[in-house]
Amino acid sequence: MRGSGPSPGRRVKRATAAVVATTALALSACGSEEEGEAAHRDPTVELPDLNGESLEVGAVWTGAERDNFVRVAEEFERRTGASVTVVPSGDNVSQFVGTKIEGGAPPDVVMVPQPGVLREFADNGWIAPLGETTRAQLDANYTEGWQQLAAGGDGDLYGVYVKAANKSLVWYSSTAFDYAGVEAPDTWDAFVDTAWTVWESGTTPVSVAGGDGWTLTDWFENIYLSQAGPEMYDRLAAHEIPWTDESVTEALTTLGELFGEGRLLLGGQRGSLQTDFPTSVTNTFSNLTTPDAGMVFEADFVGSVITDNTDAEVGVDARVFPFPAVGAGDPPVVSAGDAAVAVAPDGEMSEAQEAFLTYLASTDAAAIWAEPGGFVSPNKSLEFDVYPNDVQRGIAEALIAAGDDFRFDMSDQTPAAFGGTTGQGMWQGLQNFLRAPQDIERAQEYLESQAADAYGH
């Protein structure tokens, strides 16, 4: 996951994985015909009798995402006799857990979307290291890279990555591209040229969710990974080089080729800063005949927003291509995910907590979660036939084929104060940049100042 850059052979595998995922996403989804089949498969892990025990699990998920996780928890209840309650954590998981601990009533398990936050929790003594039964499931079902993402500063493993996402995708309106007479670009220069051609055809090229700072970090990270390379990406993520480094200047200059041209952004810079993520998607796909925007960038979960909030059909009205390669770099593959951790301020993990994490690390839980769709597991032992359609199977196959040959979301690896908090750090710094793309030096100075404070040096 971290360390030196990939060999040429591994670069081919990484690029191939992105293409496979993209091809799968371009297909039209079809629903599963047999609901509940995964729950009736033979168990692969033995769980203890926990009759009378209760667990509270905090997670950010809402709607269908929450409903699918509840199905997973219900099977754990059926097999153990325990009671599981799922509660909302909100976007700021660190604040949620800290407040609950101060109040003397922390959740038993919480889903953490940032490795940096997980490490903070471990350093604070808020969570307990994984037990032997959970570690056994990880060794059987997860590659070393996915395991080490959940390591604390002491080297111990503290979490189980239960969900994954591909954050290197650009979604586009087939209507806008057909009218402009353009095809999906594979390089950054071609991407910018395509944007101008779409603009000349009468459609604003890109809808940017600048109101949500996390989407801007994804823009930067994809450009930086491709342009500067994996080794520099790792060094910047660890703050081993400053945000005033020339490599950051080059990445922001490249991003400025888009963000600096107000005509290419729906609503210009000002309008982009007032646009949240769901709106950026509906801007692109709500109007099938005369779309407001031609493209929107974000992860595979864009497909769910399209399906839930528009009449567009993925693979027909809404298509997707990999984030383009920048300069001489490889096409980037940036991933993200959620890890389950046991909250234990006293340092002792209960039998119920360990059983739940062991269950989540097994194919038993992953199969139930994968069955309805809208979910991809990094569990390499999970059979692909549990996914409900070719779209989901293709994404899953690409993820597993890539192994550890990708980079995790940079902002998620940093301290929460820098990479995951509204109004400061990367989120605010890149919003500042979107507001004034010509002032790269000022944006870098702000980012470095914020990083130095967050990292403590």
Automatic annotation (TrEMBL):
The keyword Glycoprotein does not apply. It comes from the Bacteria. Belongs to the bacterial solute-binding protein 1 family. The lineage of its organism: Bacteria, Bacillati, Actinomycetota, Actinomycetes, Kitasatosporales. InterPro entries: Bact_solute-bd_prot1, SBP. This is Carbohydrate ABC transporter substrate-binding protein. Keywords: Transport. It holds the Pfam family SBP_bac_1. Signal peptide: none annotated. SUPFAM superfamilies: Periplasmic binding protein-like II (SSF53850).
